[in-house]
Target: Peptide ABC transporter ATP-binding protein
Amino acid sequence: MILQFRNISVAYGDGGPSLTGFTLDVAAGEIVALVGESGSGKTTAIRTAIGLLPGGGEVVDGDILFNGKSLLTLSSKEWQALRGRQMSMIFQDSGAMLNPIRRIGSQFVEYIRAHQSVQKQEAWELGRVMLERMGLPHSETIMNSYTFQLSGGMRQRVGIAMAMVFQPRILLADEPTSALDVTTQSQIIRQMLELRGKYGTAILLVTHNLGVAAYMADRIIVMKDGRIVEQGTRESLLHQPAASYTRDLLEAVPSMRGERYV
Ligand SMILES: Nc1ncnc2c1ncn2[C@@H]1O[C@H](COP(=O)(O)OP(=O)(O)O)[C@@H](O)[C@H]1O
Ligand SMILES: [Mg+2]
Model:
């Protein structure tokens, strides 16, 4: 197992727990989707895994292991070695993380060299090749562009390319395609699946879109009010949902060409 949540509970400030008794194992190369309505604790769960809980969020119970080692006791130096290289994260709008007044290439080079001691030219080439793998054919042009010159889908591809450049063991993806139109969304999803196939990267995917989960995930976890309501393989969950809440979510999935996603 690459990532193991063991009975994790998280609270923000003095409030009650926002995530309660969360237990989940993610195997190497596996894609697991967390689905559920807004506020159900999906983001909290994956941010716990990368040690980046916002606003006073704290793990109040349980443990979380990466490669069998607890993440709760890592020093900041150990986190630095882990983040970006072995575990990385992408967000709904990766472009927002990029500096608008600097070219993509120089930021990509800087990012790579912050994690690995390589020459600038080599870093440039690593970055450029990764952009191509994310389906950006004019990679040299993109490297020389500013974020405002790119579409949302292109910016998101740049973000995923940066997250994947070191071929991490696991990618944490928080609504990675939610801000995009349906066509771009499905292209990016296919590219993420290709990257998983190529590098064996596990993906822990957060989405409120059960269609996306159905298309991408090996396993689906349904969350509500900070707890796991139901979980199972994609097939079992979609075809034999046990919880009425899961059935409600399924009802809300729009059908494509008269058929559901799966
Ligand atoms: N920065 C924060 N400060 C205080 N409470 C938060 C914060 N982020 C999340 N929460 C609490 O955690 C709950 C779950 O939020 P979140 O993990 O963002 O859910 P989701 O990603 O499923 O929409 C929220 O309902 C809220 O009560
Ligand atoms: Mg969220």
Q: What stands out?
A: Residues 42-43, 174 surround magnesium ion (ligand 2) (CB under 6 Å). The beta strands are 3-12, 17-26, 31-35, 57-66, 69-70, 87-90, 170-174, 202-206, 219-224, 227-233. Residues 95-165 form one domain.
